[in-house]
Amino acid sequence: MLNTQLQRPASFLLTCDLPNEAVLLTDQTTVTLSNIEISVELFFVLLEKTIVTVGGSFSITGHNDNEDCIREHGMARNSPFCLVRSLALSSLALENIERMAPNSIGCSLKKLDLSDTGLISILSKLRIHGDCEIKLFCLSASEEAHVAEVLAQEKPFCVGRVKIMALEEYAVGVITKMSPKDCEVEYLSLTASEEAHVAAVLAQEKPFCVGRVKNM
Prior knowledge:
Layout: E1 11-13, E2 30-33, E3 36-39, H1 40-49, E4 51-54, E5 58-61, E6 70-71, E7 81-85, H2 91-99, E8 105-107, E9 109-115, E10 126-128, E11 133-141, H3 148-152, E12 161-169, E13 184-191, H4 199-202, E14 212-215
Parallel strand pairs: 1-2, 2-4, 3-5, 7-9, 8-10, 9-11, 11-12, 12-13, 13-14
Antiparallel strand pairs: 3-6
Helix pairs in contact: 1-2
């Protein structure tokens, strides 16, 4: 079927029960994600290709070729996954993330590694399940723009229990936005080669707490 023959809805509510007829989702389609859990790979495709609106009870989980990428909400708690990205995001994807409310994306992570990508801005949007332990939490940003939205957040975000946390270059400033509540880090590493990388830390007027850290 040619693309010109496919329906191109202005809005689309993604559910487990997909329509029988094929539809074409474009950068003009508003896709609503609510009361559903989808694979992280599908989530990134929607971020890059459509206008995404996140509602209540939404989660992302790991991708598995042998499982459906769209499921009922509430299953992510049992399937920790790795969130690893080092690619640039489109302007549409960045706009989608910016519109999302804080703590609106449920997930259970075992590893988070974001390097030189605007995807770092999604951190404050994540609602990381408290019963998971992140083995590696690594952020690296060679450009201030990669962490600008996170640093602009007024409310801190919580990452929960982390075995190893490594923040490099401009990402060092992200530590000022982490909530010490329910935060436990076994090993914390901060690496900065320029004074500009720690400007966000030096700009703090009051001392801040990074939570419970065993080793630095």
